Amino acid sequence: MSKFKRKKTLLIILGILVVGAFISFGAVNAMRAKDDTGIPVKATKIIKQDIESNIFTSGTVVSKAEREITSDISGKISEILVEEGERVKKGDLLARLNSDELNYQLKQSEIRLEIAKDRLNQLRKEDKSNLETSFKNAEISYKDSLRNYEDKKSLYESGVVSKNDLDEAKSLKERTYNDYLLAKKKYEDADNLAEVRIQEKEVKSLELDIDKKKSDIRKTNIVSPIDGTIVELNVSELDIIGSSTLVCRIKDTENLEVVTNISEYDIGKVKLEQAVKLTSNSMEEREYKGTVSYISPNAYVERAGQGTETVVKVKIDIDDKNTDFKPNFSANVEINTANRKGAFVVPYETIYTDKDGNKNIFIVKEDKAKKHSIETGIEGDTVIEIIGDGIEEDDEVILDPTEKIEDGTGVKVSRGIDDKKGNK
């Protein structure tokens, strides 16, 4: 190797050693800097404020009372007494069916009933009279045979008549007594004789027929079963309708409620009597009060986009009266599920859940991370309530802590992080 080449090689080796020395020196200084300043972190403050949790959804306004009015009988409409949009009260007459034929049939049935009753009374009178005569004759015969037996008994004891005469008198007494009992029973049971019973059934059948015709006549008057508004009128005068024909539809437009569906993941937070705020996109800046009034005991699956979602039906009373809501309007629903005054709150990003599922936060004290075990409470939009020992307002808490941060780890906080506030 030439002298020039040996010199060049020596210079290269020397350069490599110098670069390595600089790298080692930089690494040592970086390690020292890390030990001196701690792990860089961002932090925010624990805030004490009122917090509430709400569920936001949408629903449909419906009437709490709605009826489809049909006639109970078939017939021709003779008169309509309401118009679409008209307010009605419970019991108000809405329409009449022609009742002439029913009234004629009723008169016929009433006449047949009078005839049947007269026939029944005649049967009872005739049978009773004949049986009464037989009963009285049997009673006289029995009393005569009883006196005869008593006389023969006295004469027999005196030796005037024979034992055979006494026995004949006794036999006659017993026979007439049995005849008397039979005649008495027939007389007392006279109303249960076959012919009388048949006529009684005829009378009963006619009475039921008359009751039915009277009921049908009453049904020719179609009345409102609720207070409400005629929102749909489907018939005209002289129309012939059947018992299933829809005459009109009535809705109570003053007593409204909102029907909504709550996801299975949120339904556990919803309780009866919870307060609700109701708004509508069609009513700018108007807010109404509501109350959760019904939670269905059943859940069902509905289509949501490309998938499905399990939901539970919830009903909300609209507490305010004279609102601008109308049936079938859409409503924005805000259900207040929880609230607390003066709670300690932090952003969700400050909470670290370890492998055992325990929730923790790290408070910065003298440039070191202090671990605090906590429980969470009310969940807001951007913040969440925390509950635990040693927590104070304005404590600095580390954002987005990782497994590298432990109790006592040195940290360097980047200042100027805005506190996060917010409610859901």
Q: Structural class of the helices, strands and pairings?
A: alpha+beta
End-to-end Cα distance, whole Å, is 81 Å
Describe the strand arrangement of the main beta sheet, using strand numbers: 2-11-14-13-12-15
- Total domain count: 4
Q: Short summary of the structure?
A:
The protein is 34% helix and 37% strand.
Key terms:
alpha+beta, 424 residues, four-stranded antiparallel β-sheet, conserved putative lor/sdh protein from methanococcus maripaludis s2 fold, disordered C terminus, elongated
In words, what does this structure look like?
The protein has 4 domains: 37-53 and 341-414, conserved putative lor/sdh protein from methanococcus maripaludis s2 fold, CATH 2.40.420; 55-63 and 253-337, Efflux pump adaptor protein, beta barrel domain (Elongation Factor Tu (Ef-tu), domain 3, Beta Barrel), CATH 2.40.30.170; 66-97 and 222-251, Beta Barrel (OB fold (Dihydrolipoamide Acetyltransferase, E2P)); 101-218. It is elongated and about 155 Å long. With 424 residues, it is of the alpha+beta class. The chain has a 6-stranded antiparallel barrel. It has 4 helices and 21 strands.
Task: Record the SSE blueprint.
Layout: H1 3-37, E1 39-45, E2 47-63, E3 66-70, E4 75-80, E5 87-88, E6 93-97, H2 100-158, H3 163-188, H4 194-219, E7 221-223, E8 228-233, E9 240-241, E10 246-251, E11 256-263, E12 275-280, E13 283-304, E14 307-318, E15 330-347, E16 352-353, E17 359-365, E18 368-379, E19 383-387, E20 396-398, E21 411-414
Parallel strand pairs: 1-21
Antiparallel strand pairs: 1-20, 2-11, 2-15, 3-10, 4-6, 4-9, 5-8, 6-7, 8-10, 11-14, 12-13, 12-15, 13-14, 15-19, 16-17, 17-18, 18-19
Helix pairs in contact: 2-3, 2-4
